[in-house]
Amino acid sequence: MLLQQLVNGLMLGAIYMLVAVAFTIAIGVLNFLNFSLPGLFMLGGMLAFGMMKLGWPWFLAFAGALFVAALVSLIVERFAYRPMQGSDPEVPLVSSLGFLVLLENLMLIRYGSDQQPFPALMPDMNLRIGEVVIGIAQLVSLGISVALVAWLSWFLAATNAGRRIRTVAESRETALLMGIDIRSLVPALFVASALLAALGGILFAVNYQQVSPFMGEGIGFKGVAAMIVGGMGSIWGAVVGGLLIGLAEVLSISMLGADVVNITVYGLLLLILIVRPQGLMGRPATREKL
Amino acid sequence: MSGYLTGVLVVLAFNVIAAYAVYLPLAAGQLNLGIAGFMAIGAYTAAYLTNEMGWTILPAVVAGGAAAGLVGLVVGLPVLRTHGIYLAMATFALGQVISAIFLNLDVVGGAAGYPVTEYAPPAAVFGLAIGVVLFMLLLSSTRFALYLAAVKGDPTVADLLGISVRGIQAAAFTLGAIVAGVGGGLYAHHFSFIEAQHFSVLLSVFTVLYVLFGGTQTVWGPLVGAGFFTLVPELLRAGDQYRYAIFAFVLILFMAIRPQGLVTTAMLRLRRRAGSAA
């Protein structure tokens, strides 16, 4: 059933897409490979689960999880990004990974290491088009992801704030000379990427109805892969990369078996990096960090 | 020596070997996030040679290192065309692909893992770790270390000074792979069992953490970093489930206060000056 697998791949790709866009904001504008993002992805899913377990209605739980993720991201900015300016470019990696370990273990202490069932939020309804079955929850999350990314792309292209962000991405020094307040822009970008990652985690929890303290790792790394395949720093590249990685994963599971997933997904990444390092939709790097 | 202490020291020795495997390419400006893949090549090659071919441990481990080095050289040439974060991601992808290939190789047990019959005692592990450290100290006093620093500092200037930049980069990458392969080969024979899942991206990433934490400016950094990462979680064992959370917290604070790592050139220079004054 190829068509069904294509649909499943697209739905999974929508989650990767959000994570990839979160990574691409951090790297495209701030030149920071932020490994705390998989932790924030997990935090989104786990906290939404935890708050709903306390009896909160789902919208409050989701808002609460997003809020906490944004707050944690500000702490990451303060401790992992800000002190590292001017030092070896690999160093922020260490601290952001430190945050990933910290978040995972805090959740582990609170909720245990097992997978927890996430309550079904939407009526268990499926759309049937011919022989293809599409879950309502999956369709909604695909819609949310695409709409959000489209809005973000519009925001960057058309608004003043977007122009400021693109200026910083182009050249930090020039942006500073033009009077752009980088010190307030950077935390805002951290919050934006955290919200995207945490939303990805919530949507993942809603779609697949399970959460665990380690759910961020595999998806986070595939999000990075998606970002690079599409082209670092390009939002639509992240979209294409996310969908492509999702498709590659689902198709290789259904055709070749679950154990070869990493060969196809990361083989694809390796191939792209050797043949076309700037990614499918990226511009060649003129300047890079790390 | 108690069994517990020996166990901790063995883990420390393997971490030190892995840390230097990451340090060598890093000294030339390459962040290798796929070191676990090269350990896997060394481990599986050596284990296959002793299990199925009847080799003894020593040549098998050497062959494991050679195999990892060969793959490093062959894959390194196209991969080293990329720079910076692209190179880091390429090595990351490479590590994932290698461990996934071993996961699917039924000759060496596939997903079920691969038992190894020959056993290497702790003394062999300590010996190798000490050997690697001595080799690195020796290397750091040669011109090769200067070439690495030059290539890291500014490839264009290094090129203008007549250093073969591509050659040095490939050499650093390959040497790192060989060290990782030898470590992996001995790992297989000490623990008598290997599985592809062990050689995961997290192993690679944590090894990079040791090195960056210890500091990349001097050859002592990886040793100190590996020591800290192995011993402190053991000391925090009393903290039970809070152990890794406390550990991560300390790590974040430390890097915020001292981003250049624990051991720096300035620190060593200061000690030398104090030494000569006394």
Would you give an account of this structure?
The complex is a heterodimer of chains A (290) and B (278). By secondary structure, chain A is mainly alpha-helical. Chain A has one domain: ABC transporter involved in vitamin B12 uptake, BtuC, CATH 1.10.3470. Chain A is 73% helix and 4% strand. Chain A has eleven helices and four strands; from the N terminus they run H-H-H-H-E-E-E-H-H-H-H-E-H-H-H. Chain A has helices at 2-30, 37-53, 58-81, 91-111, 136-158, 160-170, 172-177, 182-208, 215-230, 235-256, 261-275; strands at 116-117, 126-129, 132-135, 210-211. In chain A, the strands form two sheets. In chain A, strands 1-4 form a two-stranded antiparallel ribbon. Chain A has a two-stranded antiparallel sheet with strand order 2-3. The model of chain A is unreliable at 286-290 (pLDDT under 50). Chain B is mainly alpha-helical and 278 residues long. Chain B has one domain (3-199). In chain B, strands 1-2 form a two-stranded antiparallel ribbon. Chain B is globular and about 50 Å long. The two termini of chain B are 37 Å apart. The chains are: A mainly alpha (290), B mainly alpha (278). Chains A and B meet through helix 4, helix 9 and helix 11 of A and helix 4, helix 9 and helix 11 of B. Chain B: It is a multi-pass membrane protein. Chain B: The chain crosses the membrane at residues 6-24, 31-49, 55-77, 123-149, 170-190, 196-213, 242-263. Chain B: This is Amino acid/amide ABC transporter membrane protein 2, HAAT family. Chain B: It is found in: Cell membrane.
List keywords for this structure.
heterodimer; A: 290 residues; mainly alpha; ABC transporter involved in vitamin B12 uptake, BtuC; 73% helix; B: 278 residues; two-stranded antiparallel sheet; 2 strands; 1% strand; transmembrane helix (chain A); Amino acid/amide ABC transporter membrane protein 1, HAAT family (chain A); ABC_transp_permease (chain A); transmembrane transporter activity (chain A)
